[in-house]
Amino acid sequence: MRDTIWQMKPNRDKALMLAKRQLSELVCDAVNLEGINFTLPEIQTLLDGVTVGGHKISDQHIAVNQAQAWRTLFLWIEHNQFSLTIDQACELHAIAAKDEALAWGTFRSGAVTIAGTEYMPPAASTLPELFTRMVAETLQLPDVYDQAIFIFLTMARCQFFYDVNKRLGRFMMNGWLLNAGRPAINLPAKRQLEFNRLMLDFYQSGEQAPMNAFLRSCLDERVITIMRE
After folding, report:
1. Is the Cα torsion angle 100, 197, 116, 209 positive or negative in sign?
2. Cα–Cα distance for residue pair 51/60, rounded to 1 Å
């Protein structure tokens, strides 16, 4: 799998090291994007096993679940166990969405809507076939970042689960990248408005190019420089 834009050297160990060092930031941005207002020092404290005052217990559980999902993803990659499959997506969802979604660890069995758009996600009965098609279409793309972003956007638009679809899609996107020895893409909470606007347009149109460009712009230039060394 090639990186046709940045020409970064694939290095799984280095990409994993960078992602692990960024764990608190990854979790902090993810929960803030969901409207859960933790600061980075609070997330660092929480991930050290110390509860943080002034926050709901349920919000703290969501943050801890995100960290556990990342750690599971890291472990899979370290042991060459990551794969773009329904089983792994469901296993990761069972961790990330525990006690938050209507059901976790399994595809939704009914219809859902997406706030802010008239777009209706596909029927639940079609989801396994759509996941299989997503995998096949991913492999047809020549660029590893196009592949990874395609995974995220397809999972978000299909809404395979009752909730935590965008977060789960980002986990699978970044699992694909890290497994290929490329650095993960973090979505900064400070760019939430831009992200939300582009996603609403994407849900309606299905056109991936604007979101692809946006997500690529989220990759830290310092990380690109490190990976080129």
Report:
1. negative
2. 8
Q: Which helix (H) or strand (E) holds 151?
A: helix 144-158
Tokens of 197: 């606007």
For residue 111, how many other CB atoms are within 10 A of its CB?
11
* 102 neighbors 163 (Cβ within 8 angstroms): yes
Architecture of domain 12-33+57-228: Orthogonal Bundle (1.10)
Which residues are within 8 A (CB) of 129 and not within 5 positions of it... i.e. 6 or more apart?
none
CA-derived radius of gyration, the chain = 17
CA-CA-CA-CA torsion sign (155, 157, 160, 165) = positive
Contact criterion met (CB below 8 Å) for 120 and 111? yes
Confidence of residue 3 (pLDDT cuts 50, 70, 90): confident
pLDDT, tens only, 120-147: 999 999 999 999 999 999 999 999 999 9
d(CA 91, CA 74): 14
Helix (H, G, I), strand (E, B) or coil at 203: helix
- Contact by Cβ (8 Å): 31, 63: yes
Where exactly are the structural domains of the chain? 12-33+57-228
Q: d(Cα 71, Cα 65) in Å, to the nearest integer?
A: 10
User: Is 134 within 8 Å of 154 (Cβ atoms)?
Assistant: yes
Q: Are 107 and 90 in contact (CB under 8 A)?
A: yes
Q: Residue range 202-209: average pLDDT?
A: 96
Residue 31 corresponds to which tokens in the numbers above?
Answer: 């929960």
Cβ atoms of 183 and 21 within 8 Å: the answer is no
